[in-house]
Design goal:
Elements lengths: L1 H28 L1 H26 L2 H5 L5 H25 L8 H23 L3 H22 L8 H21 L14 H34 L1 H15 L3 H15 L4 H28 L2 H8 L6 H27 L4 H25 L1 H27 L10 H10 L6
Helix pairs in contact: 1-2, 1-6, 1-9, 1-10, 2-4, 2-5, 2-8, 2-9, 4-5, 5-7, 6-7, 8-9, 8-14, 8-15, 9-13, 10-11, 10-13, 11-13, 13-15, 14-15
Length: 418
């Protein structure tokens, strides 16, 4: 497991760095307005993909060890195409992205969703290394192509869209080639594929949809009340703060795959506790580093128009730590078919987001957006912590680091008694 976790963390680190490099290129070549436009395009793609991933999303990880791919993939492909058409209509009618980008958002979401289907198959097959490799290649192609295209005279955010087509198409091809068409199946009763995909996907995507609003509702409100350039500054601060999720998300990916293939409630509980504490430790470290960096460093890296980053990170930091914990909880609930708790936690966070955002962003701008995010993230974390404690019988004291944790981590990594 040590190689698996370290490889996943390195892959996440690489993709995170490349994502920041996209922001660096955009900040210097396109300015804060270009950063804001790209942020809205990415948000639009994520929104369209919510409908697509209803069938081809995380529920696949659970079904792959139990159902042949010949029965799983056709429903996912068909649903993705239908959802792409519906997503285009929604984005276009409600003008959720800048003019001229709606069709590109739908097409990019379609390509990325097909690719995500293949990545979920790889996770279900416990082929995390292949998943990591493809993710790194996709990110590298995106940043390289964007760096070239953004240097053209008169370049705008469309350069990012063009680079996105190239990287998504390549990732789709690599994912198709990487899947193993035949793997050993677990003994399992006959499965109604559409029913299970929809039932599990409905819970997962309901939680994801509400979580998306928790993460990104502020983008639309900032753009409306403060303008696209101001949004560009916030996207940088938010992306940096969310870099603290690098290890939590890496561990969560491995955790989801392991829990989906692990029998026994106690083993699932201990896995979650161990990954939870490691996630929180790393997120705390990254947040501290970001807060200690001098403000001029951020403007030197991301461009002269990007200022006021440190105060925003300070307001975001408590929420980022809270969401680091929920990465472990959410994958525990998904891996044990208890997605209702992800929905409930995200729902509470969304209620906090709606209340705080509409009160704070019009009056206080970016600090209000950062504070709203922290309130929402903490609401979700409090609910999911309570649910995990109740379901598993874990005591509150077990959430804190103790002497047994180090030994447990050594055992999980296969390092004990060496």
């Amino acid at each position: 497991m040590l190689k698996l976790i370290s490889g996943t963390i390195l892959a996440r680190l690489a993709t995170t760095v490349m994502g920041l490099l996209v922001a660096v290129v955009a900040g210097h070549q396109l300015g804060a307005t270009g950063l804001g436009t790209i942020g809205l395009v990415v948000l639009g793609i994520t929104l369209v993909r919510l409908g697509m991933d209803l069938v081809g999303g995380g529920a696949l990880v659970y079904l792959v060890p139990r159902v042949p791919l010949a029965r799983l993939l056709p429903p996912c492909y068909l649903w993705t195409a239908v959802a792409a058409v519906a997503g285009y209509a929604i984005v276009n009618v409600f003008r959720l992205v800048p003019e001229g980008y709606a069709l590109h958002v739908a097409l990019l979401a379609f390509l990325q969703s097909l690719h995500a289907v293949h990545l979920n198959v790889l996770v279900g097959q416990q082929r995390i290394r292949a998943n990591n490799f493809i993710a790194v290649v996709q990110a590298a192609v995106l940043v390289a192509a964007f760096a070239v295209l953004a240097r053209r005279p008169g370049a705008d955010a469309m350069a990012y869209v063009q680079a996105g087509y190239l990287s998504a198409a390549l990732a789709f091809v690599l994912g198709t080639l990487a899947m193993r068409k035949r793997i050993p199946r677990k003994d399992h009763p006959p499965v109604n594929v559409w029913k299970v995909l929809f039932r599990q996907g409905l819970y997962v995507q309901a939680a994801n949809g509400m979580q998306l609003l928790n993460y990104r509702l502020a983008y639309w409100l900032i753009e409306r009340f403060r303008g696209t350039a101001t949004l560009g500054v916030y996207t940088v601060a938010n992306q940096l703060a969310e870099g603290a999720w690098l290890v939590p998300r890496s561990l969560a990916l491995v955790l989801y795959s392991k829990i989906s293939n692990t029998h026994g409630a106690e083993g699932q509980r201990l896995l979650t506790l161990t990954f939870l504490k490691a996630s929180m430790a790393f997120a705390t470290l990254v947040s501290a580093v970001l807060l200690l960096l001098p403000a001029p460093v951020y403007q030197w890296v991301f461009g002269p128009e990007v200022g006021g980053i440190t105060p925003l990170i300070a307001l975001l930091a408590p929420g980022i730590l809270a969401m680091s914990a929920t990465q472990a909880y959410a994958h525990f609930f998904s891996g044990t078919a208890r997605n209702v708790h992800n929905v409930a936690g995200s729902g509470l966070g969304l209620a906090a987001t709606l209340l705080a955002s509409f009160l704070l962003i019009p009056r206080h701008g970016l600090p209000g957006a950062a504070l709203s995010a922290t309130l929402a993230y903490c609401s979700t974390a409090i609910y999911q912590t309570a649910a995990f404690l109740r379901i598993t019988g874990t005591s509150f004291g077990e959430l804190w680091p103790n002497a047994a944790d180090f030994q447990r981590i050594k055992q999980l990594l296969g390092m004990a008694n060496r």
